[in-house]
C-alpha cells in the first residue's frame, strides 16, 4: 500500500509533468489529506460488510452535506493512514470505488467490521502532495453542450476546467481509466442521452461528478470536452497506469481554436468552489444539473 509510482521507471510520459508538493509518499500523503479536519465539517461514518472468509467491504454513510464520492475518498485516505500507523490489521489489497473501499486478505473480517463501526472519518483535505499536469486541447464535440448546462460561453468551460484541481477517486471501467473528482455540484453534468459507439483514445470527458480521460478507443456516453496526447495506460511503463487513487491532477491547456489566449499557463486554485466563482464573475450562475445525471 505504498507509493504506486515507486520504481526507477516510474516517470511520467512525454508531455506530462509532475509538480512537487508537500509530500511524495502516498501513505504519508494519505495522513495529510485525512487531517486536520475543517472546523464544523461533517464526519463520515463507516460500516463494514464481511465478504467471504477474508474480505471486508467498507461503505461510507456520509453525514448531511457531505458528498458521496468524496466521502469514499476520505475513507480510502483514512484506511491508508491507519495502515501506515499500524492501527489496522494486515490487509493484502485495498480497492477504492465510488462509495466503498474493499479490504482483501483480512484475517478476521467480522472483528474488523465491529471496529470500523466506531470510526469517525474526517473530511478530505486537498492541499498536500504532488500534482500531475496533463496537457489538453479543449476541442471536444460536446464543449458547447457542457457550456449550455453551466450557463457560460464554451471558452469559459476550458477556463474553469483548467482552474480546477482534481483528484483520482478510484480507477475502473478500462485499464488506466481514473474517475477524477473536484468540480462542485453546480458544475456536474449528465451523460449523453445517446452514447457514442466509439470515443477516441485521449478524450477528456465529464459525467456526473467525474472528469475522466479515455485511455483507449471504446464506446462511451460521457460529454467530450477535449483531447490529450498523454498515454494513460502503457504496459511497457512501470507502473503501466499513469493515474492511481489519490493522485492530484491538473489539466493544462495546450492551445487550439477553442482555448482563449489567457487560459494557457493559468494556475489551479486548488479550491473547486472557485470554479463556480469564475462562472459567476461572468455574470452567470451555473445551473444545477438536471436530476438523473449518472456516470459510467
Explain what this protein looks like in three dimensions.
The strands form four sheets. This protein has a five-stranded mixed beta sheet. The protein has a five-stranded antiparallel beta sheet with strand order 4-5-3-2-6. A three-stranded antiparallel beta sheet has the order 12-11-14. It contains six helices and 15 strands. It is an alpha+beta fold and 296 residues long. The two termini are 27 Å apart. It has two domains: 25-121, Gyrase A, domain 2; 131-280, Cyclophilin.
Précis, in short:
The chain folds into 2 domains: 25-121, Gyrase A, domain 2 (2-Layer Sandwich), CATH 3.30.1360; 131-280, Cyclophilin-like (Cyclophilin), CATH 2.40.100.10.
